[in-house]
Amino acid sequence: MTVIKMPKTDSAEWKARVELAATFRIANRLGWNEGIANHFSVQVGPDRYLLNPYELHFREVTASNLLLVNGKGDVISGEGQVRRVAFYLHPRLHELLPSATAIIHAHPPYATAIACVKGGRFDTSHAIAMGLAKQLHYEDTMAGPVDEDAIQKLAREVGKKTVIVHAMHGLTTVGATVADAFDSFYFTERWAMYTLLARQMGQPVHSLDPSILRDSPQRDKGLTPPAAQAHLNAWMRVLDKDEGDYKS
């Protein structure tokens, strides 16, 4: 596949490209992806979205080979194919959800295992639940919306929440920034891991008092940059040492 190199600038789009490319590399390291399946996207303008090309493994994604597409999945710039059946939900969620500038959808093993169980739910036995329990929406009725009515219904039910657990499918997080969506995804998967490992011990698990479950996943208030951005920045420094070509 021929790659069109995008100019490296200080623009908001280039920053979004670099950060989104970093999330693909991190996802590959952490075993979240299914081969070349799954899509991450970020809105960079009216009816303008960055998206990974169909052909690329997550390890191959770079800032410059991300596609710029419209809501119909038509390629505006870059080379590669759009897997429309996978992308069709993204632009509608970008439009309909208040915090969906960035969307990460993948099949991480622990959260997906919970999604595969009928009525699968996360325990509130770990402190991560303090910031995320009220952010979860469980989509139990189908593996994914199939028409506009279903998409509208999903958007209404999700509302201001930022984490969607898709029955028989996987996990989606949305965020006002790439860092926000990534941070929610990372910690939701960690929470799922603790939930499943604790259950395997065959003993009663703790449950956090509902009064301490927060409406906002924000943490470390007063520190800069915000916790989600600091988290992604740290991962990017790790990538810089081992696979810095993600920024190219």
Note down, in words, how this protein is organized.
α1 crosses α8, α4 (109-115) packs across α7 (178-200) and α7 (178-200) crosses α8. Mean pLDDT is 92; it is low at 1-6. It is built from eight helices and eight strands. The chain has helices at residues 12-30, 84-87, 89-96, 109-115, 129-132, 148-158, 178-200, 227-242; strands at 39-45, 48-51, 67-69, 75-77, 102-106, 136-139, 163-166, 170-175. The protein is of the alpha+beta class and 248 residues long. The protein has one domain (12-247): L-fuculose-1-phosphate Aldolase, CATH 3.40.225.10. An eight-stranded mixed β-sheet has the order 4-3-2-1-5-8-7-6, with helices on both faces. It is globular and about 55 Å long.
What is the gist of this entry?
With 248 residues, the protein is α+β, with helices and mostly antiparallel strands. The chain is built from 8 helices and 8 strands. It has one domain: L-fuculose-1-phosphate Aldolase (3-Layer(aba) Sandwich), CATH 3.40.225.10.
Number of strands: 8
Overall spatial form: globular
Taking pLDDT < 50 over at least 5 consecutive residues as the criterion, the unreliable ranges are 1-6
Nearest-integer average pLDDT: 92
User: How are the strands of the largest sheet arranged?
Assistant: 4-3-2-1-5-8-7-6
CATH homologous superfamily (4th level) name: Class II aldolase/adducin N-terminal domain
Major sheet characteristics: 8 strands, mixed
Q: Into which percentage range does the β-strand content fall? A: 5-15%
CATH class wording: Alpha Beta
The CATH topology annotation reads as L-fuculose-1-phosphate Aldolase
Structural class: alpha+beta
- CATH architecture annotation name: 3-Layer(aba) Sandwich
The number of helical runs is 8
Question: Rounded to an integer, what's the Rg over CA atoms?
Answer: 18 Å
C-alpha end-to-end distance: 16 Å
Query: What is the ordering of alpha helices and beta strands?
Result: HEEEEHHEHHEHEEHH
Number of domains: 1
Bin the helical content: 25-40%
